[in-house]
Amino acid sequence: MTQLATSLVSGLTPAHLRFLEGLFPGEGLTVAPAEMAVYGADSSRRAGMPWAVVRPRTEEQMVELLRWAQAEGVPIVPRARGTGMSGGAVPAFGGVVVSCLLMDTVLDVDSEDFCAEVEPGVVTAQFQALVQKRKLFYPPDPASLKISTLGGNVATCAGGMRAVKYGVTRDYVLGVRAVLPGGKIVNAGGRTHKNVVGLDLARLFVGSCGTLGIFTKLTLKLLPLPEGSATVLAAFGSLGEALEGAREVFRAGILPTAMEFLDAKACWGIGQIKDVPWPASPDGEGATKAVLVLKVDGSRSALAAELSRVEGALAGSTPLCLLKGLGPAEEEPLWELRRLVSPAVFRLGPDKLGEDVAVPRGRTVEAVEGFQAIGAEQGIHVVCYGHLGDGNIHVNIVYDAADADQRARAKACKEAVFRLTLSLGGTLSGEHGTGITKGPYVPWQLGEEERALMAGIKGVFDPSGILNPGKGW
Ligand code: MLT
Ligand code: ZN
Questions:
Q1: Which atom of ligand 1 is nearest to the CA of 160?
Q2: Which of 152, 439, 462, 470 is deepest in the core (most CB within 10 A)?
Q3: Percent of the chain with pLDDT over 70
């Protein structure tokens, strides 16, 4: 975790509050503790108390705020909906939380340039629906897309299920306009789909978790909307068969839009809250030891053939059952089962550590089997599921935080999972970022040289260290 700059103040003075009241009149400023507490938490279940919450509507307000904050040494924590899973939006050391939700205008959608310009507070799913009406496609689909925002997605480089074919948020950011500490405005990138003039500053902002600047405009790349999609859900009697089936799909030359998996514990948990199509016994994990859910997309005429190819590739693994859905109405119930996994995990215990490691794609079998063995060794439920197609595996370590022994074993599990991941050439976070929950482990992955370079870059953008302190390298 980064060192806190010693020049930062430790609270707001009456003069600071007068400044904020002037810049953010009426509901633009909140200092009521109950309301501020909401802005101090995110989906990591970590929380910190802001000193004040402001809601800019304009870039001018953002410029004034960051000019003042740098001069006064006031920490600034930008945030949107707080769907992040690693505490990246939590004001770990207090400061002024800046909600970007009121800057929520779609400024332009251009079907000739295949790009759009948006303010950071636009909700991702609403943006996708809007561009879809123009037969355009914005692929990144983090699980939170119905409530999370494009600004939050860019700040965290959100991933999602379609990443296996279409890549992650990073691959769709053409340009970033951001305000830096001190109030300077930076325009990085632009509307072109190719651009090699200078260093790629736009990409530097992507995934920087609000530590370099605050976005006021994003230019996003769009694709032509595929005509249709289809889904296959298949259950298997062993994890090995499921993982082998997945490999056969790639060997057959199929690039699925999404390739997700659920392990036996995930399947069992989902069966506790919903009728499931796979064979399961009511008193245990049942016959189903793993499920694959795959999506393909393309022209309507090709989809039926594509479905048969997927079915053919999976046949060698003798699925216990295989369901197909053609078009959103038939596909949606199959994907709903995948989306239920997070709440389903709580059927195994009251608390969880939700990790999102990624390994080189050829090492997924070793990784998943190894994570499950770690759970068995520690006597802790370890649930594996997620983005099998790109090697990004969600490892949920389920435990009871009220029990000191379980807490210790859960931590030991997490650290063993990290060690195994790194030994396989993987990364500690494929999509949730390091935030505060994984901050202490960053040196396990990044060397001194790399961290020093990153700290140097941070210092160029934010010399006083006011932006989102405590999140970094
Ligand atoms: C997901 O893939 O469902 C999300 O990344 C959230 C998670 O389950 O960790
Ligand atoms: Zn995920």
A1: 2
A2: 152
A3: 98
Res 260: pLDDT: 98
Answer whether 434 contacts ligand 1 (Cβ < 6 A): no
CA 86 to chain centre: 9
Whose alpha carbon is nearest atom 8 of ligand 1?
342
> Which amino acid type is present at position 187?
N
Topology alike, domains 14-101+457-461 and 227-347: no
* Look-up of token digits 């016959």: 287
Q: Does residue 345 have a pLDDT over 70?
A: yes
What is d(CA 93, CA 125) in angstroms, rounded to the nearest whole number? 32
Asked if the 348-435 domain carries CATH number 3.30.70.2740, the reply is: yes
Torsion sign over Cα 30, 35, 39, 41: positive
Scan for tokens 């999404």, then name that residue: 258
For ligand 1, whether the C-beta of 342 sits within 6 Å is: yes
Residue 55 phi, psi dihedral angles, 5° rounding: -130, 85
> Whole-model pTM?
0.95
- Are 258 and 225 contacting, i.e. CB atoms less than 8 angstroms apart? no
Give residue 327's region: left, alpha or beta (phi > 0; psi -120 to 50).
left
Q: Please give the distance, rounded to the nearest whole angstrom, from the Cα atom of residue 140 to the centre of ligand 1.
A: 13
Phi and psi, residue 306, nearest 5°: -65, -40
**Is residue 354 in contact with ligand 1, taking CB distance under 6 Å?**
yes
Structure tokens, 210: 């609000």
Q: What is the 3-state secondary structure (H, E, C) of 344-359?
A: HHCCCCCEEEEEECEC
Dihedral sign, Cα of residue 388, residue 390, residue 391, residue 397: negative
| Ligand 1 neighbour 386 (Cβ under 6 A) | yes
SS (H, E, C) 260-274: EEEEHHHHHHHHHHC
Asked whether 433 lines ligand 1 (CB < 6 A), one says: no
**What ranges make up the beta strands (E) of 373-472?**
381-387, 392-399
> Nearest-CA neighbor of 210 among 20, 103, 66?
66
CATH architecture of 106-224: 2-Layer Sandwich (3.30)
Mean pLDDT estimate for the chain:
95
Minimal-distance CA residue to ligand 1 atom 6: 143
What ligand has the least distance to the C-alpha of 85? 1
Domain ranges of the chain: 14-101+457-461, 106-224, 227-347, 348-435
Helix pair angle (59-72, 14-23), 10° resolution: 170
Give me the pLDDT at residue 371, please: 98
The CATH class, in words, for 14-101+457-461 is alpha beta
